[in-house]
Specification:
With 180 residues, the protein is α+β, with helices and mostly antiparallel strands. The chain has helices spanning 2-37, 83-87, 123-127, 160-179; strands at residues 71-73, 93-99, 106-114, 133-135, 150-152. The chain has 2 domains: 2-44; 66-179, Alpha-Beta Plaits. The structure holds iron/sulfur cluster (2 copies).
């Protein structure tokens, strides 16, 4: 009987001990967070900015100089080498090219960047020799559909009509040389 009473007493003690401990923990959390909720004191004011911020009206120009925004490819300068595609750790660049108007010119028909997978590491920009691929300062790229996050900079596939025009132009250029 004595042993039974002792066990009940010990169980009750630990039960009350847990309640006191939990209450102190909750009180400690409230002590830490309530001043922020009630905005008491200088150091406990709001530190986050609203978005879009109606007061400071921050623009892309307010970003740090080395910010990496959405990518842009100047397709006129792009050689279609595919270095950016190979270096991309996220596999989000797709490049396809075909012969252009002249033998020395490559026609970059596809240059897609899937921003839903891009981690903005900047490796593709660093490796681009002609510096056609750059990070812009544009950071607002949200979309409702995943497919809308794919940016296309390619020129599209060359049509038969276009290829025929190039062929005729090349023939015209080479005609005087053949006659000479
Ligand atoms: S920034 Fe990085 S993840 Fe994004 S496309 Fe370039 S290499 Fe790929
Ligand atoms: S963007 Fe630069 S690295 Fe990528 S295919 Fe074009 S030239 Fe090559």
């Amino acid at each position: 009987m004595m042993y039974f009473r002792r066990s009940v007493f010990i169980a009750l003690f630990w039960y009350l001990h847990s309640i006191v401990k939990s209450s102190l923990s909750i009180a400690g959390s409230c002590f830490a967070t309530l001043p922020y909720l009630l905005r008491i004191g200088e150091s406990r004011k709001e530190v986050t900015d609203g978005y879009p911020d109606p007061i400071s009206s921050k623009t892309a120009d307010d970003l740090p100089p080395r910010s990496r925004g959405l990518l842009f490819n100047d397709i006129e300068r792009c050689t279609g080498c595919g270095d950016c595609e190979h270096v991309c750790p996220a596999g989000c660049i797709e490049v396809a090219s075909e012969p252009g108007a002249h033998d020395s010119r490559i026609w970059v028909s596809v240059f897609d960047v899937d921003f839903s997978r891009c981690v903005f590491c900047g490796l593709c920009v660093d490796i681009c020799q002609p510096m056609s691929l750059v990070h812009t300062r544009q950071y607002e790229g949200a979309a409702y559909q995943l497919e809308d996050l794919v940016a296309s900079f390619g020129r599209g596939q060359v049509t038969e009509e276009q290829r025929e025009k190039w062929h005729l132009a090349r023939q015209r250029l080479s005609a005087p040389q053949e006659g000479a």
